[in-house]
Automatic annotation (TrEMBL):
Residues 1-61 form the MADS-box domain. The lineage of its organism: Eukaryota, Viridiplantae, Streptophyta, Embryophyta, Tracheophyta. It comes from Aegilops tauschii subsp. strangulata. GO terms for molecular function: protein dimerization activity; RNA polymerase II transcription regulatory region sequence-specific DNA binding. InterPro entries: MADS-box/MEF2_TF (IPR050142), MEF2-like_N (IPR033896), TF_MADSbox (IPR002100), TF_MADSbox_sf (IPR036879). Keywords: Differentiation, DNA-binding, Flowering, Nucleus, Transcription, Transcription regulation. It is found in: Nucleus. The keyword Chaperone does not apply. This is MADS-box domain-containing protein.
Length: 104
C-alpha cells in the first residue's frame, strides 16, 4: 500500500525542506538518467537549489544540448509550432526509419 497524497506547498521547516530537496533531486536525476538510457533520448537537466548551488545531469554535453535547443526553438518561429515540427519529424522517422545520432 502506498503513501497518501501530500499537499504541494512550500515546506516551512528548513531542515525538512533541505532533506526533501535532496531526496527529490536524486530521484529527478535518476529519472533523467533512466529516460536517456531506456529511450535513447538526449537529456539535459539543470537544477539550482534554494541556496543557488548547481546540480546537473546530461548524457551528452549540457552546452551542446542547450545549443541544440536554441537552434530548434529559433527554427520554430519560421517553421511553425513545436507540435507541427514534431509531427514532421515523426512522419520522416516512419518513412525512413529512426536517425542514427553521433554523440561526441
Amino acid at each position: 500500500m502506498g503513501r497518501g497524497r501530500i499537499e504541494i506547498k512550500r515546506i516551512e521547516n528548513t531542515t525538512n525542506r533541505q532533506v526533501t530537496f535532496c531526496k527529490r533531486r536524486n530521484g529527478l536525476l535518476k529519472k533523467a538518467y533512466e529516460l536517456s538510457v531506456l529511450c535513447d533520448a538526449e537529456v539535459a537537466l539543470i537544477v539550482f537549489s534554494g541556496r543557488g548551488r548547481l546540480y546537473e545531469y546530461s548524457n551528452n554535453s549540457v552546452k551542446a544540448t542547450i545549443e541544440r535547443y536554441k537552434k530548434a526553438t529559433s527554427d520554430i518561429s519560421s517553421a511553425g509550432t513545436v507540435a507541427e515540427i514534431n509531427a514532421q519529424h515523426y512522419s520522416q522517422e516512419i518513412m525512413f526509419g529512426p536517425a542514427d545520432y553521433i554523440y561526441m
